[in-house]
Amino acid sequence: MTDLSRLDIKYLKGVGPKRAALLATELGISSYYDLLYDFPFRYIDRSQVYTISSLQGDSLPSMQFKGRFISFTTHGEGRKRRLQALFTDGTGTIEMVWFNRVKSLLETYKTGVEYIVFGQPKLFKNTYSIIHPEVDVYKPETAPRGLVGVYNLTEKLRNHYFTSRTLQKLVAAMLQAVDVGSLPDPLPPRLRARRGLLSLGEALRNIHLPASVELMQRAQLRFKYEELFFLELNIIKNVKGRNAKLPGFVFSHIGDCFNGFYERGLRFPLTGAQKRVIKEIRADLGSGRQMNRLLQGDVGSGKTIVAFMTMLIALDNGFQACIMAPTEILATQHYESISEMASVIGVHVGLLTGSTGKKERDRLHAALLDGSLQILIGTHALIEDTVQFRNLGLAVIDEQHRFGVVQRSRLWKKNSTPPHVLVMTATPIPRTLSMTVYGDLDVSVIDELPPGRKPVTTRMRYESDRQQVYHFLGTELRQGRQAYIVYPLIESTEKTDLHDLINGYEAVSQEFPHYRVVYVHGKMKPKEKQHQMELFVSGQAQILVATTVIEVGVNVPNASVMIIENAERFGLSQLHQLRGRVGRGADQSYCILMTKHQIAGDTRKRLEVMVQSNDGFKIAEEDMKLRGPGDMEGTQQSGVAFNLKLTNLATDGPIVEMARNDAMAVLDADPALQGQEGRRLDEHMHFLRGQQADWSLIS
Ligand code: ADP
Ligand code: MG
């Protein structure tokens, strides 16, 4: 591998310096190795030669024909010049059209020579024509046959007459020039044997020039496994290294705080999932290594109580604990619910946010240092250096996707021994993805909602249904319920036709004069926001008009309607989070997705996922299928570059798991990769890091 990666692509037959420069800048291919590992992204079937007379209808796939050109004519002048050729296979004729290279094509193609042409026939005024077909002189021994790979190209390459066919030919030349069967295989033979994977040589040949559909699939499987295996090996090796480096406090004791709350404070039985997760956390806390655990649970699944009980374990062992929330509203809400729970067992809780006054701040600082304050709840204000704990044993971070890795690590530094860290998120990240994104975190999932929750009924409605929607909202309000209305914008500019909060607030106030309407948005002063929120939380206001600031955390069980304006503008995960604000009480709740009349097919599909499912994980998985993992909310900030070439994390879950298990087994047996096999794997990982600059970001 190393040798091939040093072999400049310009020396390959058919390349040369000019094409080499293009390949390097456009596709990142500069060595023999790069070209070998530039895989087709799909295949076309050229096993059949079709007859022109058999063509029927439009929207045909690309297909090939064998025959001769009858005539060539040119039309137009200068840049508009085009070449038309009439082609026959004896059963009928097709017109072929080219819009560039007219002169050179006229010199190349001849009448009377037998060609294979390939392209997509389009029906135009009752005759078929193909624009820019691929044309090869027919030679029985070299004619494209069977499955043919289609390679990625860029606009610039196309402008330089680089087609997928060009790449096919280069790869074919490469497979002639290099004896791929004798290349050292980066995958250990025993793993290949266990998983029934093709050898490197066979896989390289069959991924570029498949001998059959089955071999093409097996070649793809092998390379997916290969990229995932080294990805996982890299992640797990780093995690293991980190774990080995970071000892943690041992919380072995379960005492009065935990037991007292369990006996006197719990107002409902924990769900099975909550119990399981608390067990997983307890095991971490007792292990002697620093806990770095991600707690995933759909909105309303009851993460707060799990976090609280985890904090009680820290307290029972003589340590302090803190919770960091992304917004002031959320921190305050945590403060309220946690103070209430903590009062049962006489535990002191403090709240520190950006708007905490100097006097209170000083008091908190002192109480933290002398240890009389056991639990601190707050926003980013918590990570400021002025905040010093006597002995912070556990840090809980709510809603992970708002915090980066850097902020997490600042929390670690609050002690000479880093505190245990529990990260909570409602962003349901599919398992396959979380394993790769949060490679450094262990994952616990609360996959069960507390009993008695009714799934939210979700509907799509158009602008023309607005009166009907208001009518429905009125009937809910008359029954004493509350409602949220969410807007994509605070104030509209002239250019958009989106609904905005300011206008919406006025319209809704007029429509419902007998109810109190309040509003919150991100540009309000925290105090004012707080005040408006409180009116809604306490039930004095019935309608809350808001932007997405209410997305996370807010808990008003009496709210039964969520109306989302311009729902087409929101991502699926975001819609799911918003919908999670309702359906928290015993009443049937509703989510209404308002859209303009004409929305794109993809958008409609996305919104229909919402109508059909209340399951956050399923929604996230659909989201990933529709948009690809790179776009998933919650992944952008994690600093992960997804440069997997073949693997689709949404659909290749089983292969991810297989590769991960194998990588783990390898590292369990040889943690530092110093054995014979280990050293070779380690070398290959180094090689891969050098190949792809982005790779190193993954750890
Ligand atoms: P989230 O996971 O979205 O943060 P919360 O922790 O805010 O969810 O819990 C949502 C609501 O469910 C709260 O009112 C909480 O008291 C309640 N809850 C939590 N666990 C249970 C349970 N096991 N049984 C009944 N209600 C529960
Ligand atoms: Mg929460």
From TrEMBL:
GO terms for biological process: DNA recombination; DNA repair. SUPFAM superfamilies: Nucleic acid-binding proteins, P-loop containing nucleoside triphosphate hydrolases. Its EC number is 5.6.2.4. The keyword Nucleotide-binding applies. Keywords: ATP-binding, DNA damage, DNA recombination, DNA repair, DNA-binding, Helicase, Hydrolase, Isomerase, Nucleotide-binding. GO terms for molecular function: 3'-5' DNA helicase activity; ATP binding; DNA binding; hydrolase activity. PROSITE patterns: HELICASE_ATP_BIND_1 (PS51192), HELICASE_CTER (PS51194). It comes from the Bacteria. NCBIfam families: PRK10917.1-3 (NF008165), PRK10917.2-2 (NF008168), recG (TIGR00643). Belongs to the helicase family. RecG subfamily. It catalyses: Couples ATP hydrolysis with the unwinding of duplex DNA by translocating in the 3'-5' direction; ATP + H2O = ADP + phosphate + H(+). CDD domains: DEXHc_RecG (cd17992), RecG_wedge_OBF (cd04488). Residues 284-446 form the Helicase ATP-binding domain. Plays a critical role in recombination and DNA repair. Helps process Holliday junction intermediates to mature products by catalyzing branch migration. Has replication fork regression activity, unwinds stalled or blocked replication forks to make a HJ that can be resolved. Has a DNA unwinding activity characteristic of a DNA helicase with 3'-5' polarity. This is ATP-dependent DNA helicase RecG. Residues 465-625 form the Helicase C-terminal domain. PANTHER family: ATP-DEPENDENT DNA HELICASE HOMOLOG RECG, CHLOROPLASTIC. Pfam families: DEAD, Helicase_C, RecG_dom3_C, RecG_wedge.
